[in-house]
Amino acid sequence: MKTVIHNIGTLAGILPSDVIKLEGAQMNHVECIEDAYLVIEDGIITEYGEMSDSVILNGTKCSEESLSERSFADAQDENIEYIDAKGGFVMPAFCDSHTHIVYAGCRDGEFRDKIAGLSYEEIAARGGGILNSADLLHETSEDELYRQAMERVREIMAMGTGAVEIKSGYGLTVEDELKMLRVIRRIKETAPITVKANFLGAHAVGRAYRGRQSEYVDLVCEEMLPKVAEEGLADFVDVFCDTGFFTVEETARILEKAANLGIRPKIHANELEVSGGVQVGVKYNALSVDHLEKTTEAEIEALRGSETMPTMLPGCSFFLGIPFGNAKGYIEAGLPVALASDYNPGSSPSGNMRFVMALGCIRMRLTPEQSFNACTINSAYAMGVSKEVGSITVGKKANLIITKPVPSLAFIPYSHQTPVIEQVILNGTTRI
User: Is residue 182 part of a domain?
Assistant: First the structure.
C-alpha cells in the first residue's frame, strides 16, 4: 500500500538516518521543507521532497510542468491513497518516554490535599500517593485494568503521541507487578502505538514491607526481576532513587541484578532532592535518568560523554508546584534533553505532549525548536526507539501528525489548547 501526502505547507522534523539524538546546539534547529510531499509504503516513509520538484502520480514522479494541462485530481492513481494536507504542518508524532498510564481509578482526593498545602512527601508519608494506587490496583482485575489503560492510550494517540513507554510500579507485590506488565504487553499487542514496557517494582515499598525496606529490595531482586525476565515482560527496569524512597546502594543492587538478567536500567532521580541517582544511573549505563527537578553541576558532569539521556517532566513540576528542571542549562552545557509527560494519577494527570512542549518553552525557557526536538527524537532515544520513530526520515515508521494550516512551528506550543491536529497517522495505516 502506497500513500502520498501532498500540499504539505511545512514538513518539519527531518533528520538523516544516522542521527539518533540531538545534543547541545544541535537542538536549536528543526529541518523543514516548505510546500512538500511525503510518500509512505507499507507503513514506512520512503520519500519526501518539494512539491515544485516532483509529485508522485500513477506510481511515477511527475514534474509540476507535466501537470499543467491536467488537474492533480484527474492524474491520481486509484491504487494509491492521496492525503491532501491542505497547507498544514506534517511532523513526526510525539514520543513520550515516561508514563505510568496503567493504573486503576484516580487520586482526585489527593488533589484537595495538595491544594490544602500538603507536599508530595507528606502525602506519601501518610500512606497515600503510590500506595493508594497500589491498593486500588490490587482490587482491579486485569481485564478492567486493560480497559481503563486503553482509554488513556486512545486519548494520547488522539493528541499526537505515536510512541510511549509505560511503567509498572503500582503493584508492589509479585503478582500485581506481573499483572501490570501483562496489561502493558496486551497494549503493545493490540494498540497501533509503539510501546515500551518498564518494570518499576522499586517505585515504593509495599505496605506489607513497611519498616522492612531491605527485605522489599530482596523481593524485587530475588523474586520480581527473575519472573519479569523469564516472561520477557519488560524492556527496562527502573528505580525511584530519591529521598524517602530508595537509596543509591539499594538502587545499585537492583540495577546489578537487572544487568545480570540482561535488562537495561532507567532511573527516577532528583525529583525531591539531589539523590545520587544520576551518578548511579550513568554507572550502570542507564538509557535515561528522569525528573531532574533538582540538579547541580555534578549531575551535568556525570552525564557528559555518557549514553544516558537526561529526561525532564515539566507536567510533574506544574502539577506539584515544584521547580522545573534546568533544561536550558543542560543544553548550554552541550548535553541532550528529552521531555516527557509523566502521565500518572497523582503528580501529572495528563499525557498531552503539546502541553509538555508548551511548558518546555514557557517555564523552562526553551525555544520552540529545542522543545520540539526534546519531545520527538530525544524522547524516542530515551526509550530506545529513535532508529524507528521520532523524525521524518526515510526508512522510519510513518508515525505522523497532520495539522491545520498554522503560522509556524512556534504556534504548536504557543497555542497548545487550540485544536490544530487534523489527523494522526500511526504505522502508516492507522488514522486517528
Answer: yes
Strand partners, 71: none
Alpha carbon distance, N-terminus to C-terminus of the chain: 18
Instruction: Dump pLDDT digits (tens) for 242-270.
Output: 999 999 999 999 999 999 999 999 999 99
Task: Report the distance separating Cα 68 and Cα 87, nearest Å.
Answer: 20
**Same domain flag for 188 and 247:** yes
Q: Which residues pair with 344 in a beta bridge?
A: 348
C-alpha cell at 154: 486512545
- Whether residue 386 is contained in a domain is answered as no
Q: How many CB atoms lie within 10 A of CB 78?
A: 7
| pTM (whole model) above 0.90 | yes
Backbone angles phi, psi at 324, to 5 degrees: -85, 145
Domain span at residue 222 reads 94-381
Instruction: Please state, in angstroms and rounded to a whole number, the distance separating the CA atoms of residues 299 and 316.
Output: 20
Note whether 84 and 198 are same-domain residues. no
User: 422: which 3 cell numbers?
Assistant: 487534523
Q: Count CB-CB contacts under 10 A for residue 306.
A: 16
- Per-residue pLDDT reduced to its tens digit, 83-117: 999 999 999 999 999 999 999 988 777 777 777 77
Residues 304 and 188 in one domain: yes
> Do 285 and 396 share a domain, yes or no?
no
Pairwise CA distance, residues 46 & 309, whole Å: 29
**Cβ neighbours around 294 below 10 Å, total:** 19
Residues 6 or more apart in contact with residue 355 via CB below 8 angstroms? 315, 416
Backbone angles phi, psi at 101, to 5 degrees: -80, 0
